[in-house]
Design brief:
Helix content is about 45%, strand content about 20%. It is α/β, with parallel strands linked by helices and about 240 residues long.
Length: about 240
């Protein structure tokens, strides 16, 4: 019972992955799980895709905690998951030695989600599925004179900043060539972090990219925002 909320979250996440994989038609996948932690999600995704869907998978779980990664590698060996490996590393600056088909992240904290999305964009990953966690960056930056009401009450400011963070991320993904959706992850009774970003590489019309950029510029100007993902992408294109 103590793990029921996690069970629900993992099962729902796998549903989103399954839908994306079905639509892609791919029978061979290289997947990276950023901020895998104890890797409940990583193991379930690998098992489902390899043993249930019969898809050839090469999967890497990445996290900063060496002891956790060591235990995960032991478990992968115990169950004969030959193409699932875990590595100690930072999301920021991680390099993959092969093309990446899918990047996933479940509750990567604050700007860690931005680095996961940035790497996925940089690698031209075909599919991105991410559930952000705590989001503090924009809450500390918000400074609007015209719409100050959204900053007056602490809880309103926090929730507004979190929603703006993900709206900007979605527009940046659109601008970068992804068909992007923001979806309800699971019911709020199971986790308050219930927004999921799903992005699939697609041909995005230039007009849609320009509109996405104009909306980003407008909200950043109004509230004095400098989101990490936007800064990373601008530095890449500079």
């Amino acid at each position: 019972r103590t793990m029921y909320d996690k069970f629900r979250q993992i099962n729902k996440f796998v549903e989103f992955i399954d839908e994306a994989v079905e639509k892609s038609g791919l029978q061979k996948l290289h997947i990276i799980d950023f901020g895998c932690g104890k890797s409940y999600l990583t193991f379930v995704v690998y098992y489902y895709l390899v043993f249930v869907k019969k898809i050839q998978v090469e999967m890497v779980g990445l996290d900063l905690k060496a002891d956790v990664i060591a235990r995960c590698n032991e478990t992968a060996g115990k169950y004969g998951y030959d193409h699932l490996v875990f590595a100690v590393g930072d999301i920021n600056g991680y390099e993959s030695n092969m093309p990446v088909d899918m990047v996933i992240s479940l509750h990567a904290c604050d700007t860690a989600t931005d680095y996961a999305l940035f790497n996925a964009i940089r690698w031209n990953a075909k599919m991105i599925i991410s559930v952000p966690c705590c989001q503090h960056e924009l809450c500390g930056q918000m400074d609007s004179q015209e719409i100050a009401i959204l900053q007056r009450y602490g809880i309103v400011k926090e929730r507004t900043a979190a929603l703006m963070t993900d709206a900007i991320r979605a527009n940046l993904l659109t601008e970068s060539g992804y068909r992007t959706q923001l979806l309800e992850f699971v019911d709020l009774s199971h986790t308050p972090k219930n927004l999921l970003i799903r992005a699939v590489r697609a041909v995005i019309p230039g007009s849609a990219k320009k509109q996405a950029r104009a909306e980003i510029d407008a909200i950043e100007k109004e509230f004095g925002l400098e989101p990490t993902l936007d800064k990373l992408l601008k530095e890449t294109h500079a």
